[in-house]
Amino acid sequence: MVVYLLPQLPRLTAVFCSLHYFILYLCYFRRGQYSKAKQDLEEEKHLNPGVRIYVDPFTYEDPDQAVHEFAKEIDASNIHIEKVIGIGEFGEVCSGRLRLQGKREIYVAIKSLKAGYADKQRRDFLSEASIMGQFDHPNIIRLEGVVTRCKPVMIITEYMENGSLNTFLRKHDGQFTVIQLVGMLRGIVSGMKYLSDMSYVHRDLAARNILVNSNLVCKVSDFGLSRVLEDESEAAYTTQEVTGTYHSPGGKIPIRWTAPEAIAYRKFTPASDTWSYGVVMWEVMSYGERPYWDMSNQDVIKAIDEGYRLPPPMDCPVCLHQLMLDCWQRDRIHRPSFTQILNILDKLIRNPTTTLRRTGGERPVPTLLEPVGGPEFVSVWSVEYWLQAIGMDMYRDTLTAAGYTSPDSLLTLTQQDMASIGIVTPSHQDQILASVQQVLLSHMQQIQEQMQDSMVPV
């Protein structure tokens, strides 16, 4: 045996040396606590220094390192708690003041982790700070810092004087102009565009999770359900209704605000956030009414699956309700992006007298939903808005110059017509034709219904 082993000693020595260096490398790697996501972030920063990429704090083995990577540690002695303003999932939420050396004293909101917490609760609590600390936008709630080196553990954010948007609107029912309401919606979509640009999906966008300051600036908050955008398989999950939300293996799902594909397959994307934004639009224009009123979650899912959507709130401009319907397209690829929504709202704000035509009548009767495609094309659309809604507004001047200046004229548009006036990209032709055909189908259905109603039995 020794005879056969001796010649192998140099090779075994090399193997042991390699193994030794590999173990040292692993120890160094683990000591650094960097995950693959963290390495990818550093590589992305090097290759694209102007691009900010969101990092999921759950990829860190040590939650304290994650929170200190993105949040500033604050000495608890600099915080003065004044009063309790709410109760959160992890403990009390208080208002107070923060004074840092060399800076003026500011009002803040203070979330505290209740006593007796488990390690997982502490990690989940601090993960929200790790998420917020990565964002810097005027329509995203600002993180001031954290307290982790003493108890209670705290998260400190800017103070929003008017609280949650849904409660604020209910208190001031009917007191704002349409332009003021659209301004609130513009702020929300600006924040959501920022998050989407960072490949970040909120998952729980709702008026209750929008905070309002004294200047009526709306800011996206509550990142408890938020996760990094991942390419997950569309495996089906069973869900069970519990007190207004659905529980699934991935956590709670707020049914009334969630896109159908996210409910059925837990497929959360920027497009599912767009669906939620459409519901937020409805909440804002209805001054904080509960979406789908007193319908059960099961009835909401069934109604949406059958093609029904929320009707326009009282005095809601037609174009805004149409934008809501666009956000609620069943096929997520047909929903507008946050960039497109932002551009549309900006144009509405610049031209309020010509575009913000209101619907008449009283508020809708509870549970009275509308089937998709209810309003007629001519009464709802302008050519400009239609092109914006389908993401083809780069062809506005082309179509106008060719004489397509009214919604009716667009109904005759063919692929040959588009090619002859310079719209030659096949995917663009397909998208425009699909929209025109959808409108024609809606008209045919309406004509058939009118004919059936007018028929007299023999």
UniProtKB/TrEMBL annotation:
Q: What residues does the Protein kinase domain cover? A: 79-349
Lineage: superkingdom:
Eukaryota
Cellular location of this protein? Cell membrane; Early endosome
Task: Report if keyword Membrane is assigned.
Answer: yes
**Transmembrane residue ranges:** none
Record's Gene Ontology CC terms?
Answer: dendrite; early endosome; plasma membrane
Catalyzed reactions: L-tyrosyl-[protein] + ATP = O-phospho-L-tyrosyl-[protein] + ADP + H(+)
* Alphabetical list of SMART domains matching this protein: SAM, TyrKc
Q: Is-annotated flag, keyword Transmembrane helix?
A: yes
Gene Ontology MF terms in the entry:
ATP binding; transmembrane-ephrin receptor activity
Mode of membrane association: Single-pass type I membrane protein
State what protein this is by name: receptor protein-tyrosine kinase
